[in-house]
Structures are given as C-alpha cells and as structure tokens.
Amino acid sequence: MHKIFHYLLDVEKKQKGRRSIRFGHEKKIMIIKHLNELMETRQPFLDETYNLKALSDELNLHQYQVSAFLNHELGMNFNDYLNKQRVKYCEELIQSGAADKLNLKGLASKSGFHNRNTFTTAFKKFTGHTPSDYTKRHAKHKSYAD
C-alpha cells in the first residue's frame, strides 16, 4: 500500500532542497477516504497525545506529506484538523445528550482536549459559539422540541 501512495504522489525538488508536493486526483481521493475512515472508525483524535507522526504512520506517508496534504488540500494545519474532528465529536455529544452531566473540563477531556482553554478556543473557531453558549442553545432547542 505504501508503494501505491508514493506512485500517486509527485514530489518535485525546488530551489535550496525544498520540496513542492502535488497530489494527483486519485491520490487525493485515497487519502481523504483513508482519513475519513480512520477518524470515523478509530477516532484517534480522542487521544489527547495523538500527533502528526501517529497519523502519518497510520496513513503510511511521511509527516511532511501529511502536513502538506492537510495544508494544501484541506486548508488547515494538523492541529486545526485534529481540533475540528474533536469539536465535531463534542457537538455530537451535546446533541445526543451524552454531555448533559459533564462540566466544561469533562467535556473537553472526553472530546480529546487536554486543556480547557484550547477546547474553548477551538470550539469557538469551528462553531462560532463558546461551548457554554452552544450547550445552552442546544438545551433550549431540545426543550422546545419536547
């Protein structure tokens, strides 16, 4: 599988030893599919120590390739990608009611964040609301539906 990824990846040398990575259409689709499957089934983002090396190893790519893919194809760095997955998971917890008995620190931890401030900043970045406001808004919508 590793050879397939490298076959589909075009790496050019630039000036001063820098590399310009271009991903072919098939390669993009394969990486996105693998990323989505990994995030949905294994949910590695829930591990607060998960890092670029671990993701690269799971995708059988070099760290610079994964980093370039996230930056150029998805428009975000690794930390933002991971935090976006965590925030999405957190939203699902809130919407399902699984977060009803958790405080912010507990919600942050359950979503893979090791720091409440990072959690609040990321949550606001990706939803436009603080976790507290989002939870309150969801609670209001839930009570109207009941």
Secondary structure topology:
Layout: H1 2-8, E1 9-13, E2 19-23, H2 25-41, H3 52-59, H4 63-73, H5 78-96, H6 104-110, H7 116-127, H8 131-145
Antiparallel strand pairs: 1-2
Helix pairs in contact: 3-4, 5-7
Count of distinct structural domains:
2
Mean pLDDT: 87
Shape: elongated
Q: Roughly how many Å is the radius of gyration?
A: 18 Å
Please provide the count of β strands: 2
Which structural class do the helices and strands define?
mainly alpha
Largest sheet: 2 strands, antiparallel
What fraction strand? 5-15%
Question: What would the keywords be for this entry?
Answer:
146 residues, mainly alpha, Arc Repressor Mutant, subunit A, two-stranded antiparallel ribbon, elongated
What's a quick, concise take on this entry?
With 146 residues, this protein is mostly helical. It is built from 8 helices and 2 strands. It has helices spanning 2-8, 25-41, 52-59, 63-73, 78-96, 104-110, 116-127, 131-145; strands at residues 9-13, 19-23.
Overview of the molecule:
The chain is built from 8 helices and 2 strands. The protein is mostly helical. It folds into 2 domains: 74 residues; 59 residues, Arc Repressor Mutant, subunit A (Orthogonal Bundle), CATH 1.10.10. Strands 1-2 form a two-stranded antiparallel ribbon. Strand 1 and strand 2 form a beta hairpin. Helix 3 packs across helix 4.
